[in-house]
Specification:
Strands 1-7-6-3 form a four-stranded mixed β-sheet. A four-stranded antiparallel β-sheet has the order 9-10-8-11, with no helix packed on it. The longest helix is centred in the last third of the chain and has 29 residues. The protein starts with a helix and ends in a 23-residue tail after the last strand. It is an alpha+beta fold.
């Protein structure tokens, strides 16, 4: 019975939401490579007039997704500390995300079970201004991601960082929770925070202080449990406790030139070698007549003689009608007649028929 009483207001709120007008639509313009954050409004979920303040005790939760998909785009994240805290959509779009994206947000009033819908139209385009080739990322351990998403803490961080990076016009590129980067959930102890990564970009080179912090010597000291090398005053303290052992510096490079050099140089070398080989084989040929004229008569006669003899040997081998060599025939042979004498096949000398063939030497001269 108690469970039925709980579901009745929820079903009533859902049925009442079916007859409501079309969802509110808001158009936003994020920029590629720049940090984007949007605070989800609580007023539509509470159905309060514009001049009435939102009661902080009313719990409101949100569910956001890409239109036609169950989840958000890969570059966009949603966070809310509790139903009584504001919700945020934040992220940094990439060049692949350029274009139009529609985010549908459903707000739930946990007291009255009312639901309202919002539609955010994101027109993602290229950023204005110059490129930011110098980028640095800091791990701030004294804050959670929800505490730096509002504009005031983010602006305060950039102002404090300007004391370490002068002269520079700093811009916020991205904010990521340390939990999304493999960090651990802190213990429920006062003062323990999840930590947040803040990425900043500028057109000015890094200062000597930042270069020293990110140097190999500082990393070696951090590996031994010692503080890194910091040659300047920490202007971020005490409002932001930065882990200086987790500072990374990066320079955005244009790889188009490197790709062209990598591809074009081997192609040009191969083309030159092909042209050189074609010139040697086609344009530097002396010809048969010039070769014969430059060769002496004796050498030419010797060459033709070898060719004629070779041709004659080939013709003899093709006929196979040459008589059998005498060396392959027996030494003595008896004629067909009974009283005819024996004769030597090689010398042609005959022996008397009365002579015993067993007494005849193989060579007649050896008597």
């Amino acid at each position: 019975m108690a469970a039925a009483l709980v579901w009745i207001p929820l079903l009533a709120g859902l049925l009442a939401g079916l007859g409501r007008p079309e969802a509110q639509q808001t158009t936003l313009q994020p920029a590629v490579g720049r940090f984007f954050v949007h605070t989800l409004a609580r007023e539509p979920a509470l159905r309060l007039p514009e001049h009435v303040a939102v009661p902080p005790a009313v719990p409101v939760t949100y569910h956001a997704h890409l239109q036609g998909h169950p989840d958000l785009p890969r570059w966009l994240r949603y966070t809310q500390r509790s139903p009584r805290h504001p919700g945020f959509l934040y992220g940094s779009p990439t060049p692949e995300d350029r274009g139009r994206q529609v985010i549908e947000v459903v707000a739930y009033n946990r007291d009255s079970f009312d639901t309202t819908q919002q539609r955010l139209v994101l027109l993602i385009g290229d950023p204005e201004g110059p490129r930011l080739p110098y980028q640095a990322e800091f791990l701030v351990r004294s804050h959670d991601v929800e505490e730096v998403l509002p504009s005031t803490p983010a602006s305060r961080f950039l102002t404090a960082l300007g004391g370490l990076w002068e002269p520079a016009e700093l811009q916020l590129l991205n904010i990521t929770s340390a939990l999304d980067r493999g960090g651990r959930v802190p213990l429920p102890i006062e003062g323990r925070k999840e930590g947040v990564y803040i990425k900043v970009g500028s057109t000015s080179p890094f200062s000597t202080c930042l270069k020293m912090v990110a140097s190999p010597d500082s990393h070696a000291r951090c590996a031994q449990g010692q503080p890194p090398l910091l040659s300047c005053y920490d202007t971020l303290a005490p409002h932001f406790r930065v882990d200086w052992c987790n500072v990374s510096l990066a320079m955005a490079r244009d790889f188009l030139t490197d790709a062209l050099v990598t591809l074009l140089v081997p192609l040009l070398v191969a083309l030159l070698l092909t042209l050189l080989l074609a010139y040697v084989m086609c344009c530097r040929r002396e010809g048969r007549l010039k070769r014969d004229l430059a060769t002496s008569d004796i050498q030419m006669f010797h060459h033709f003689t070898i060719r004629e003899n070779t041709e004659e040997l080939r013709q003899m081998a093709a006929r196979r009608e040459v008589p059998r060599p005498l060396s392959t025939q027996p030494m003595f042979k008896v004629r067909t007649g009974q009283h005819e004498p024996m004769f030597n096949v090689r010398t042609g000398r005959q022996l008397p028929p009365q002579v015993d063939s067993a007494q005849v030497p193989l060579i007649l001269d050896q008597r």
